[in-house]
Design goal:
- This protein is α+β, with helices and mostly antiparallel strands.
- Helix content is 40%, strand content 24%.
- The longest helix is centred in the middle third of the chain and has 25 residues.
Length: 223
């Protein structure tokens, strides 16, 4: 039970309280193998999946059949928490285990009962949902960009904001970053070179110096 207090949904809730809730609602831990699908895109979102150990990938198939990598999610995290309620609650992505994982699968009705059993859990649920909505808004803004330069500009500006300076370290490999952008690695490398030639950045492997932040900001402004 002590390990469950590390899960954001149960933050500041005593192990004894969590144990009582889990016994009352008959919640059990389940295990999945690498490659197992935890949820299919567009299937009814009738349960909350709380990732306890390991990591999963979230992918979306668009109308043309192209698979788009949305993100990797590591424990401890709830999955698709914002989509559990609503008149048309569906999983927006396919969730696949990247490695062997463990998770708690809690039916929607049990979540409703749980939220009524403890105010702290209710507040945590609302806080997590609000934070997720904020990240989703930023993600939609990011996906609206049509060029690799715009996507790179937004990505570098976010890293700069977190680090507090204009020299940033890429937190993904260039292969993973290209996959995240939905482009080839060659196209990504080419655009990094073009941005360097245009005086926007100076790139050296995973370290990048932002030379003209104002021009990067102009690239990512809403039109």
């Amino acid at each position: 039970m002590k390990s469950l207090t590390q899960i954001p949904l149960f933050r500041s809730v005593s192990p004894e309280k969590i144990e009582h809730i889990f016994e009352e609602l008959s919640i059990k831990e389940k295990h999945f193998k690498k490659g197992d699908i935890l949820a299919m895109q567009d299937e009814p979102c009738n349960r909350l999946i709380i990732l306890a150990t390991g990591s999963v990938k979230a992918e979306m198939t668009d109308a043309s059949g192209k698979i788009i990598k949305v993100e990797d999610i590591s424990a401890p995290s709830p999955l698709a928490i914002l989509f559990l309620f609503g008149t048309e609650s569906k999983f927006p992505v396919e969730i696949t285990a990247i490695e062997d994982i463990s998770a708690y699968i809690i039916p929607k009705q049990s979540i409703i009962k749980m939220l009524g059993m403890d105010e702290t859990i209710l507040k945590n649920y609302l806080d997590i949902s609000a934070d997720f909505a904020s990240r989703l808004s930023k993600k939609l803004h990011f996906l609206s960009f049509k060029t690799i330069r715009q996507k790179l500009s937004m990505y570098l500006l976010e890293l700069s904001q977190k680090s507090g300076n204009n020299t940033v370290e890429l937190n993904r490999t260039k292969t993973a970053l290209a996959e995240y952008f939905g482009v080839s690695r060659q196209s990504l490398e080419r655009e990094l070179t073009n941005m360097q030639n245009d005086g926007l950045i100076m790139s050296q492997k995973k370290r990048i110096l932002i030379r003209d932040k104002n021009r990067l900001m102009q690239l990512v402004q809403f039109s």
